[in-house]
Amino acid sequence: MKSHLVKINLNGVEREGLCESRTTLLDFIRHDLGATGTHAGCEHGVCGACTVEVDQQIIRSCLMFACQADGSSVNTVEGIAKSGDMSDLQNAFKKHHALQCGFCTSGFLISADDLLKKNPNPTETEVREGLSGNLCRCTGYVGIIEAVLEVASTRARKIGGEHA
Amino acid sequence: MKSAPFAMHQVNSQLEILNLLDQYGEDARIIAGGQTLLPVLAMRVASPDHLIDINKVVELKNISLSDGLLQVGAGVRQAELENWSGLHKAQPLLGMMFPWIAHTPIRNRGTVCGSIAHADPSAELVLALAVLEGSVILVSKKKRRIVKAKDFFVGALQTSRQSNELIEAVQFPICNPEAGFGFSEYGYRHGDFAVVAVAAIKQGDSWTIGFGGIDDVAQTYQCVASSLNEVNQFIDDLAAAVEVREDPTATSGLRRHLMRSLGKRACQQAIDFKSDGIR
Questions:
Q1: Which residues of A touch B5 (CB under 8 A)?
Q2: Which of A30, A65, B224, B269 keeps 20 to 30 A from B9, CA to CA?
């Protein structure tokens, strides 16, 4: 039944695989392409653990079929930083204890990255609203929000410095 | 949580959609954003043999304004309408509702018409179409018809769409510049389904107040009131009198309370409404 040849650009690399119609983008990138950084949580669009970026828009990868993503550009947590490095957001998550078990973290990082692209200087309320589609069941949200706010202010200072 | 097998038809034109609907009828479902359909398939509440993917049909991706109507095609994503520059002038009530609809990743993919097609009685867009007295354009291979919201929504998750019909677009009347709008909602978590949602429209002393989540379909009521006190009294009487559903998420008593408190909040917003002051 694997009848669809799906080609995507995954974190800058052209990848392809055969899958069934019913294979979600989430299962395709995890099982067929081996990119297991994106996590399968509730698999019905509630928890946000599987959030990825498809053609510059964040979406739930459990709520899209892989064959619908053919020809798209998909960015996942593996593409956030160069191998062996961590992005500023990842470092801030570490510093602020914004993760414990880490299951929700890849989804939070993708959502937070998108939030800061669209709104580089968010208020705490805007961060809370922007991340409201992601659930964390162990650490809680305080550290996550502190991490995102710190990255926003650090990036703003850097840009300010460049123009000074 | 995996869908049962199905055949996927990825089409490029409306004609192909209508031919497939004509051929498969009940055995086929349209998939646009899929934000409601995929959970339904994953939980196997439905297991159609055929899915017709309309995401590549360019002719369905239009947002247009004509003849006093804001028309939104079947392929238009919620985030596209939310971020469309003309929205707040054309129909500010929709702009007020969007932040309440699920979350950014869902609105990035979910479509306006998809939400209408699903006809959840607590969905914001369903309430919008009902309270604004909008319409749904249905097309089949044989005919095209325009159905008013009150005739389209016939029950919880039930519509008058025939199995060979495609929702081509929905139409919201463009707002009267003199009108005031208010919207308020309560859910257990931001972005969750509303326990009760209220939309209020004020045109002079004429009020239209719509409630989502209280019954199998969104309910709208009209009254004439010259002050906030008068409209509040109308809402108090209404909350005491109408049939209100009771389910594991909320008692009818809680829903009646929410009708009163959120209703008053929405009406106050409609009185204070400034057409250029809404974000």
A1: 1, 20-22
A2: A30
Kindly report the number of other CB atoms within 10 A of residue A164's CB atom.
5
Nearest by Cα to B38 from B97, B104, B111:
B111
Query: At a CB cut-off of 8 Å and minimum separation 6, what does A140 contact?
Result: none
Partner-chain contact A133 B106, CB within 8 Å: yes
Please tell me the total count of domains within chain B.
3
Helix (H) or strand (E) holding A84: none
Least Cα separation, residue B246 to chain A (angstroms): 24
Q: Are residues B85 and B165 in the same domain?
A: yes
Q: Judging by beta carbons within 10 Å of its beta carbon (0-12, 13-18, 19+), is residue A109 exposed, middle or buried? A: buried
Percent of chain A predicted with pLDDT > 70: 97
User: Do B191 and A132 lie within an 8 Å CB cutoff?
Assistant: yes
Q: For strands B7-10 and B50-53, give the pairing.
A: parallel
Helix, strand, coil percentages in chain B from 3-state DSSP, rounded to 5 = 35, 25, 35
**Which chain B residue's Cα is nearest to A41?**
B1
What letter would DSSP give residue B194?
Answer: P
Residue type, B259: M
C-alpha dist (Å) from residue B259 to A115, B106, B200, B254, B256: 33, 27, 12, 9, 5
Q: Is residue B147 assigned to a domain?
A: yes
Report yes or no: B241 at the A interface, CB cutoff 8 Å: no
pLDDT of residue A139: 83
Residue A161's pLDDT is: 67
Question: How far apart (Å, rounded) are the C-alpha atoms in residues B213 and B97?
Answer: 15
Q: Which residues of A touch B7 (CB under 8 A)?
A: 21
Strands of the sheet containing B50-53, edge to edge, are: B7-10, B50-53, B28-31
Q: Is B42 on the interface with A (CB under 8 A)?
A: yes
- Tell me the ipTM for this assembly: 0.93
Q: What is the CATH number of the domain that holds B87?
A: 3.30.465.10
Q: Does B99 touch chain A (CB under 8 A)?
A: yes
User: Which pLDDT value is given to residue B279?
Assistant: 41
Q: Looking at the structure, do residues B46 and B65 belong to the same domain, yes or no?
A: no
Pairwise CB contact (< 8 Å): B53 & A68 = yes
Q: Does B35 touch chain A (CB under 8 A)?
A: yes
Q: Tell me the average pLDDT of chain A.
A: 95
**Domains, chain A, ordered by start:** 4-79 (3.10.20.30), 88-163 (1.10.150.120)
B53 touches chain A (CB under 8 A): yes
B209: in domain: yes
Asked if residue B82 has pLDDT above 50, the reply is yes
